[in-house]
Design a protein that fits this description.
By secondary structure, the protein is mostly helical. It folds into 2 domains: 106 residues, Arc Repressor Mutant, subunit A; 39 residues. 69% of the residues lie in helices and 7% in strands. The chain is built from 7 helices and 3 strands. It has a 3-stranded antiparallel beta sheet. A hairpin with a 7-residue loop joins β2 and β3.
């Protein structure tokens, strides 16, 4: 960037977009290096850090389609990494829980992935990471608010779909 050049919103957007694309590819590569696919890793990581969850709760946390989630759960159960149990609060719901084998795999996979992500972020000082986190969170919350306003505005696609 030339001295005195102003950072415009479109330029900042391009930097965010390009950074996201390459960081995302490297993060996915890191997950693949654990021997798990992205869906399985995401489900195991959610169970590791949040405890037993229903399939719907995992879906909400990792933002996966129900078909993908069901296939992942079937796969993880077949591998002996998770078990389905009855929910104590809802007889219709099934709760997923990590087995001892699942906990070990999830913990070691997440640890490897976390180290890779730490290495990716290593050019930034702790202060820079704090500022970036604060700025991106502020931007994301504002964008989410604007999106919500648009979706609930009369005449929006979601508003018409509800009628």
């Amino acid at each position: 960037m030339k001295n005195g050049s102003r950072i415009t919103a479109p330029l900042l957007w391009l930097v965010i977009l390009k950074s996201y694309r390459v960081l995302s590819l490297l993060a996915e590569q890191s997950i693949a290096n654990t021997g798990l696919c992205l869906t399985d890793f995401a489900a195991l990581e959610a169970l590791l850090h949040k405890g037993p969850l229903t399939i719907t709760q995992i879906q909400e946390k990792v933002r996966l389609a129900s078909g993908s989630m069901t296939a992942a759960v079937d796969r993880l159960e077949k591998l002996g990494l998770v078990v389905r149990k009855s929910s104590p609060s809802d007889r219709r719901a099934r709760v997923l829980e990590l087995t001892a084998k699942g906990k070990r795999l999830a913990a070691s996979s997440f640890e490897k992935h976390a180290k890779d992500i730490e290495a990716l972020m290593s050019p930034l000082s702790e202060k820079e990471m704090e500022r970036l986190h604060e700025s991106l969170k502020k931007l994301g919350l504002l964008a989410a608010e604007k999106l919500e306003e648009q979706e609930t505005r009369p005449g929006s696609g979601k508003e018409r779909a509800r009628k």
